[in-house]
Design a protein that fits this description.
Layout lengths: L8 E4 L3 H12 L5 E5 L4 H8 L6 E3 L5 H11 L3 E4 L5 H6 L1 H21 L4 E7 L20 H19 L3 E7 L1 E3 L9 H12 L3 E5 L2 E2 L1 E3 H13 L6 E6 L5 E2 H12 L4 E4 L14 H7 L7 H12 L1
Helix pairs in contact: 1-2, 1-8, 3-5, 5-6, 7-11, 9-11
Length: about 300
């Protein structure tokens, strides 16, 4: 593959988050990135980020030899990991989901060990905290689900990478991220909202009475800021969220206004209203000057515009 285009940032994952990260890079006046994913929706990628097909590789990244070759041939210096199994996969086939995601992360770890990678940004989840009310970055989390266990394991894999190599690693524990999804992809929160705005359905299966919804554009912007940050600690964990919770009734009101339909929903039975605690993002705000730009109304409008 000699003569390949040199592209310094590799985005692993072509779903909601990965493609919006590409969008963010491009909006900052840079074309210096490559998207790698085992499944690619070129129409979605084009519509969101206007990325050319020459900057997209549809290939399984869980083979470290293939991944190492891609890194070498394209001169990759930074890796952003926006791929992994989501809740639906863990609910249906927890063992397979854990195995597949673990294989992917170990492949990335092995490939990074063979190459001189400057920085890795791994997008994790607040799910690592489990039901603990202590959810600051300095508290060791205690996950209670296969999803949370797997994400915490992945974090520790990349902490080892930072300790054993010259690579700087940033782990971002984000709240539920929402935006216009590619077909058949996205977390349950984002998928439900997309179905309402895309299919004009009048029923959303379940909706939390109160939850945090992070606009994918806020997450993408923060990720690219970390890539450009020359003063990053060797290993850092950062919580990221909107800084507030949104209530189901206000989301439904916005959806009704956007669709013109009388939308109904089922409230999640397992949610304890008194247990909702906003993810603390003090570190992101004070150390990294993070300030979320989009509120839930703007996010829903963005999703709606995507389908118009």
């Amino acid at each position: 593959m000699n003569g390949e285009l040199k592209l310094s940032t590799l985005i692993i994952g072509a779903g909601l988050i990965g493609v919006h990260i590409a969008k963010e890079i491009k909006e900052r006046g840079n074309e210096d990135y490559l998207i790698l994913a085992h499944k690619v929706d070129f129409n979605y990628i084009k519509k969101i980020s206007n990325t050319s097909e020459s900057q997209v590789i549809e290939h399984d990244a869980s083979n470290s030899e293939n991944l190492s070759r891609i890194i070498k041939d394209h001169g990759i210096q930074n890796i952003i990991i926006a791929a992994g199994s989501l809740h639906p996969a863990f609910k249906k086939h927890p063992g397979a989901a854990i195995l597949n995601e673990s294989r992917l992360m170990l492949s990335i770890f092995a490939a990074c060990n063979k190459s001189k990678i400057n920085k890795v940004v791994y997008i994790s989840t607040l799910g690592v905290y489990g039901t603990s009310s202590e959810r600051d970055e300095e508290t060791f989390p205690l996950p209670v689900s296969p999803y949370g266990f797997t994400k915490l394991y992945n974090e520790q894999v990349f902490e080892s990478l930072a300790k054993e190599t010259e690579t700087t690693v940033v782990v971002i524990r984000s709240t539920g991220t929402i935006g216009p999804n590619p077909e058949g992809s996205g977390n349950w929160m984002s998928t439900g909202l997309n179905n309402i705005l895309k299919l004009k359905k009048n029923t959303i299966p379940t909706l939390s009475r109160e939850a945090e919804y992070l606009d994918v554009r806020d997450l993408s912007s923060f990720v690219i800021d970390r890539i450009h940050d020359k003063n990053s600690p060797k290993f850092d964990v950062i919580n990221l969220g909107p800084g507030y919770t949104a209530y189901a009734n206000e989301i439904i009101a916005e959806l009704r206004e956007l669709t013109g339909q009388s939308i109904k929903y089922t409230e999640e039975k397992f949610q304890d209203h008194n247990s909702v605690v906003t993810l603390p993002i003090k570190k992101a705000k004070e150390k990294y000057r993070y300030s979320p730009k989009y509120n839930i109304k703007q996010t829903l409008s963005y999703i709606s515009d995507f389908y118009d």
